[in-house]
Design brief:
The chain is mostly beta strands and 139 residues long. It has strands spanning 8-12, 21-32, 35-44, 52-58, 62-64, 80-85, 88-98, 101-106, 111-116, 120-122, 125-127, 130-132, 137-138.
């Protein structure tokens, strides 16, 4: 899939310590056949924290923004979810619930942290130009 200037996307980090995280960005331009310049929505430059970070990323790290999916009864135990924390979406699995708080375990860090339901979304993978969930296919 090719992205164009101005499109909203997510960038999957492959850096150590950030594996399994996705960051909202806008395509600045396509640089060549396998890379883009993107401007992050929530990440800033280290030298000037008033400027949003613009970075070159590999095309295989870029995906469309996933669709919003509502689950009427909430999340179930062991659902794979994304949690919005530290300026990005982090992949984990639901391990418990207390009211509107969900406990999420992160394989990458071994931590279990409680989050309000508003910080969670069902995890979707972008595979062959389709959204795929452990629950069902999404068009």
């Amino acid at each position: 899939m090719e992205f164009h200037k101005g499109e909203k996307v997510e960038v999957c980090s492959k850096q150590q310590g950030f594996l399994g995280s996705y960051y909202a960005a806008t395509v600045v331009k396509k640089l060549d056949t396998d890379s883009y310049a993107v401007q992050y929505e929530n990440l800033v430059e280290e030298e000037d924290m008033s400027k949003l970070l613009i970075e070159r990323v590999s095309a295989d790290e870029v995906r469309p923004v996933p669709p919003r999916i509502k689950f009427g009864s909430g999340f179930s135990m062991f659902d794979k979810v994304d949690v919005f924390d530290n300026d990005g979406w982090w992949v984990g699995k639901v391990t418990g619930r207390r009211g509107s708080l969900y406990f999420v375990y992160f394989d990458t860090t071994g931590e279990e942290i409680a989050y309000h339901v508003s910080k969670l979304r069902i995890h979707l993978d972008w595979v062959n130009d389709s959204w795929v969930s452990s629950k069902r296919m999404v068009s």
